[in-house]
Structures are given as C-alpha cells and as structure tokens.
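Async update (no meeting this week)

Hi team, since we skipped the sync, here's where things stand on the single-chain job. The sequence we agreed to prioritize is pasted below, unchanged from the tracker. I ran it this morning and attached the output directly underneath so nobody has to dig for it. Comments welcome in thread, and please keep replies under the output.
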Amino acid sequence: MISNQFVFRGNQTIGAAAAEQDGQYLSDCFIDTGILSILLDCEDHRCILVGRTGAGKSALVSQLNVDNEHVIPILPDSLSLSYISNSNVINFFTEAGVNLSLFYKLLWRHVFVVEILRERFKINSEQQKQNFFLSIWSSVTRSRKHEMALKYLQEWGDSFWRETDYRVQEVTSKLEKDLRGAANLSFLENSKLDFSAARKLTKEQREEVIHRGQEVVSKVQIQELNLIVDFLDEILLADRQKKYYIVIDKLDEEWVENKLRFKLIRGLIETSLEFTRLKNVKVIIAIRNDLLDRVYRFTRGEGFQEEKYRTSSLDLIWSKSDLVEVLDRRVNKLVKSQYTKKKVTHNDLMRPVHLEGGKSERAIEYMLKRTLLRPRDLIQYFNMCIALSDGKPMVDASTLVNAEGNYSRDRFRALLDEWIGVYPNMGLLAQILRTREPIFRIHSVSRIEIEEICLQAASSIDAVEGEDLDAANKVVDAQVKAEDYRRELFLLFYKVSLVGIKTNDAMPVSWSYLGGPSVSIAEVEDRSKVFIHPMFWRHFGILSGQKYKM
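Output:
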C-alpha cells in the first residue's frame, strides 16, 4: 500500500493512446531505447523509422523537438498533393505509361531545399527574401556550379515566403505546362487530356506519347537541384554545429489516393537517402511496416533494390523491460505528485493473477502476454483497469481479468483499422477463429468451415473490394481448393499478428510482431500449429486460454 489516502478514480488515465494527445505524459515519461540518438546523428544514414501502429513512432517524432532548435515538420496533407492526383494532364501521361518518378523526386527535393533555406535564413516575407539574395550574391565565391545553383534559387525565389502547398502547386503547374506542350499531337487535337483519352490510344500513339512525355520529364531541373544540394552543404550550411531535421509523419493517413501515394512515398524515400550526403541535415520518415511493404510491392520496377532501402531503416521494437519502464514512469507520475514522495511502480498497485491449477502469475506478465509488445497496448490495458478500479487502492486480479474483455475487443478493432488498407475484410474472415482452442493444427479446420467462411465473406453486405475478398471469391467459385486457401488464410492471420505459427514440430513458434525471419507460404503445412495470440482470446471467446503458456 503506497498511501492510506490513495484510491483510483475511474476518470484517471496514465496517458492517451495517440502521441499528439499525450502531451501531459509523453515528455515526462519518454523512454529512449537508443533509436532517438541514431535519428539525431546526421552522419548515420538510417533515417526511415519503421514500426507498427502504437509502437511509438509519433512519440519519437515529438521528442525530436525537445532540445533541437531546427526541426522542420512536414505533414503530407498540408502539401496539396491532391493537386497532382486531380491533374488531368498528369493523369493522361501517367495512364499512357510515362514514368514520373523523376518528377516526384524533384518535387520532394524542391520542397526540402526551400524549407531548409527558410529555416536557415528565416525567410518569411518578401523583404527577407530580397535580403537573402543580396547577401548571397555579394558573398558567394563565383563559379559555374554556384552560379547555376543561384540561378535556380532566383528562378523560384518569388515563392520562398509562400506556404509549402503553394510551392507544390507551382512546381506541378510548370510540369503540366511543359507536358501540355509536348502533347501537341495531331491525333489529340480534339481530345481532352485525361484518363479516358489515354485509354483510347493505339499502340503507336501510346509509344509516341510516352516518348514525348518522357523527354519532358527527363529535362526537369534535376541537375540544378543537385547543385543546390551541394551548395547547401558547402556554403549555406557551413556551420556544422547547427543541425537541421526535416520530419515527415502521418504518411498512413488518406492525404492522396493510394496509387499516387505509393509513388510519392517511393520518391520521398529516395530523396531522403540522397540528402544523407549533407553533413548537418537529416530527413526523417516515420512510416508503418504495412505501408512500407505496399510501397515496395507496388512501385517495384527495373533497378529496384529493396535491400538498399532496408539498410536505411530503423525497426521500432520494444523489449519487455523497456515496456515495464514505460508503465512504471506513467504510474509514478499519476500517483507521486498527489499522494507520496516515494517512487511508485506497477508492483505497488497490482496483485498477482491466480490461474487454473492453483498457480499464480505476476500481473505485469499477464498483461505483457496480452500485448504485441507496444506501448499503446500496455497503456490502454492499464487505463481500462483504472476505469474498473474506481474507489479502490489496488488493481486486483478480478479487475485485471474483467478489463481484459473490453481491452481484447478494443485491440481487435484497432488491428482491423491498422490493416484495413491491405485486408479490408479481415474482420469477416477472422470469425473462423471463434471459440477454438488457443492452439490447433491447420488441418483441424475443415474444408467445409473454409468454404462457409469464404461464402459468408463474399455474400456479406459489409464486404469491401480487396485482395482478401478476391481470394475468398476464388474459393466460392471453385477456382481455388479450400485446402490450398486455408494455408493462405492462416498466413494472412500470421502477418497481422492474430496468430503465431509453428511450421513443424522441430521449429519454435514464429510471431510476425517480434521481427526476425518471417514465415513463407512454402513453409506452412497442414500439420503446422496455429497459436491464437492471447490479446484476442476474449474477443474470440476462447475460454480455455488460461492453460496456455506463451
């Protein structure tokens, strides 16, 4: 007992699930697992922060602002990138087959250069812009390389003090104008440039459009921008003591349609890696695992080297001890300021859980087994325990177990939200896990059960077009055997961490959220064992789960 006065209040929490709503706790209770120092090191090329929802990406991004003066946040939805997706001219050439990847890199590079210059020279008005140019022209040692860089700055200088979204539209408008000029083809005279016009092109017409469009894209001012990047490094950012960080988060939100979003993110990643040659500038990208995988999958083409990008990634994975420290710091902040001067931990507020067979388990171990080892999971679980402990000085075993029901349902809904872009019908297909044993072999799920779940998903009014529904429809239409689809279905559940898989009796259980080598479809056998994650036992009505040891 920490104090005779302390009791929980049902409206208390140890913080919010989202970092942007967690200001009260985030700064005081932040835990650095070593990743922050890597992100702050401009000489370390690892700049892509990869993690699942709730792993703490946004918390790290927020912490970057602490004690770092020159942090430049860029939110994708503030860039007016929808202007590109709504451009009929760009849509026409994209649909015709013109590769615009060079333009997307130009766009990001232009945005980054201008943002760094604005931050370095405080260019926030027309007068400040003029002062900047006067200073640069008079002080820079003249050379052909420097003069070409300065020419580029001067050409785009009128927009330096404008908002970032204006500059995106400005660069895009210039490309539109150049492409429209290239589209002066006799067979297009009476046609509107858009998707439909591109789809009507003959093979010969398409080849000519691609040739002309690719010529325009190839002439974009990449050389000048390369010189600008060198110019930044050699002269404008010569003070190596000042570090500049460009941070891009919220890429998983719907800031533009998916097809274009993947291409823009690919261009963003490539551009951020190019900026690693600047000695005191770093572009940091925070992105979810599933979104990054889709970017690589949908933009893979000639010359693509995924390994190059993977080596520049930082996977955000938590140890159990670090997660316990996250919980203890937040518990301490909740209790200490009001009731005691002593340090308070979870051990002071929680009682062990008694399991079947007379055994007991520490409350924190019980909770950790029901997380995907992410801070958000643990914080949400403890908050739900507080809500059921109103007026009590401790979270007792019955409260912990009772809170688990709401927590399990909440985490399953969160999992569906996390993966809706890839598997929008997972909630329908996952019903096949209801009331099963926590461990079972794949072949114990019968052909009839597989066919029924596929039919239910295909005929549901809640079904959404997606890869998972297409696969289920093939079973319904007898294009794919139920036994073959069964392995694919459980591999899907494995990828999202609903289940772990023990491919054969000689291998350990593999969980996708723990990192390490993933399981492939070739490794999944009918006799492979499936382990439903304890986080979801209560949601699926698995009552015998208490016997199961992780």
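Quick observations from my side:
The chain has 24 helices and ten strands.
The longest strand covers residues 281-288.
Reply here if anything looks off.
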